[in-house]
Each structure stands twice: as structure tokens, then as C-alpha cells.
Amino acid sequence: MEAKEIASQHNPTFRTVLRLAKARGIRKYGLSLLSGQRQVTEVLREFPERCAGIIFSDPQVPPNGAVKEDIPTYHFTPDLFRQIDVFGTRQPILLVSFEVLPVLDDTLWPPGCTVCIPFQDPANVGAVIRAAAAFGVSRVVLLKEAAHPYHPKSFRVAGSNLLRIPLFEGPSLAEMNRYMVPIITLSPTGMDIEKYKFPPSFCLVAGLEGPGLPDHLKGTAQISIPMEPGIESLNAAMATGIALYLWRNR
């Protein structure tokens, strides 16, 4: 398929792609941007049906996977490409389509761990999704407070794992106490995770970056990760990943 030439800032395609840097545009168009040569190649190979286009500029060429699958290609001028290449990769960028996340049915709880993400930093969202896929959680629930999982920063951290694990739209942290399943929260004052016995089915919840857990969740089962004296806390995404690793290896 011949590449479509994009040379003007007023071009509708360019204006659409530019809006994909923010959650509002991502939701409106059902598209996301993925950058990084290895990750783009992986998604092209394993999820071609999700690939809506490849954007490139001189001296780049479209990846072989895009040509083979007849995926639309867009040749941007260098100046326009720099405006969307926010990570400075200087490599082709993949347009990825996605469906609206289904709303969580809180009457059905599969065995294992359901991870609920409230993080407002897209990089933290991506990091937990990556860990969740690695350690075999049943599903990931994006709470209302959370950054969009297909934000470019989240997608870049999560990579193809974002397409491998079931994602659901959930309630806010304030509504979490309605669930009829054990809720386990991460807290520096909780029980040592190495001594905790996880139930067969449960929901793991970390607090927001900074504020932590709301008061109504502080009465839930709380676990903590042992640390050296004088260390106040771990990054929220890192703590969640460690908890998932320790759960998986029980």
C-alpha cells in the first residue's frame, strides 16, 4: 500500500494523531500511539488486527510487518514527525486501535488475583499492567481515578502486555467497599506479606500516589513489603509488582 503524504499542520490526519497525546483524544478516536522499534515490531507480528497505521518520516522506512499485512502508512515531514515523536525514538510509530473497556461485573470473580489500578501517572499504570501480565493475574480493573491505559506513556511501559490481559473499567476508590470478595490493600503498616495467606480469589488495591488509601479501605486486609529501616515507602507501581511476584510464588 502506497504511503499517504502528510505535509501540513492543518492536515486532518496530523491533527487527529496530535490529539492522541492526551486521554480525551484517545477516547474520542479509539486509537493510541506506540513507539519503540522492538515494541512496534512485536505488536505488528502478534496483533496485526489491532494495527490501524504506521507513521514514519525520512530516513525511516515502514517495518516489514506493515507492508506484509497491508497496514495503512503515513509519511510525515520531519517537522511534523518530531511533534508526535514525544519520546525521541526517531523510529516509526504505530497507530493501535482498541475497544471501549467493558464495565466490570462485580458479581463475577474469577479465581486468582484481580488488580485494581487507581494510579494517575500513566507510567505507573503501564508498569502495573506489565507486572500483572507477567505474574498471571486474572484481570486488571482501571478505577475512575486512573490515567488512561492507552496513554502513550502507559502503552510504552506496558508494551504488548496491554493487549494480552483482560482490562475492565471499574468504580472509584470510594466505591470499592461494595465488593463481595476479599479486598487486600498495600500499606506500610500492614502485615508482612511473607506471612500473609492469600485467599483463592481476591482484589488487590494500591492507594493513590501521595494520598494513599482512603479511610474506608483502611479496615480491609492490609499487607506490607518489608524494607530496611529509614526507608519511608516504595513507588506505588513497584510495590504492586513486588506483591504480585510474592503472591505468584506461593
Rg from alpha-carbon coordinates: 20 Å
Numbering strands along the chain, what is their spatial order in the largest sheet? 8-7-6-10-9-11
Order of helices and strands: EHHEHEHEHEEHEHEEEEH
What's the overall geometry?
elongated
Specify the helix fraction band.
Answer: 25-40%
Helix/strand structural class: alpha/beta
Q: Terminal Cα separation, in Å?
A: 51 Å
Poorly predicted spans: none
Mean pLDDT: 91
Total helix count? Answer: 8
Give the biggest beta sheet: 6 strands, parallel
Total number of strands: 11
Strand composition percent: 15-25%
Structural notes for this entry:
The protein is of the alpha/beta class. Helices cover 28% and strands 22% of the residues. Helix 6 packs parallel to helix 7. The termini are far apart.
List keywords for this structure.
250 residues, alpha/beta, six-stranded parallel sheet, 11 strands
Layout of SSEs?
Layout: E1 4-6, H1 12-19, H2 23-29, E2 31-34, H3 37-46, E3 51-56, H4 64-68, E4 73-76, H5 78-84, E5 93-97, E6 112-117, H6 122-134, E7 139-142, H7 152-158, E8 167-169, E9 183-192, E10 201-205, E11 221-224, H8 236-248
Parallel strand pairs: 1-4, 3-4, 6-7, 6-10, 7-8, 9-10, 9-11
Antiparallel strand pairs: 2-5, 3-5
Describe the structure concisely.
The chain has helices at residues 12-19, 23-29, 37-46, 64-68, 78-84, 122-134, 152-158, 236-248; strands at 4-6, 31-34, 51-56, 73-76, 93-97, 112-117, 139-142, 167-169, 183-192, 201-205, 221-224. With 250 residues, it is α/β, with parallel strands linked by helices.
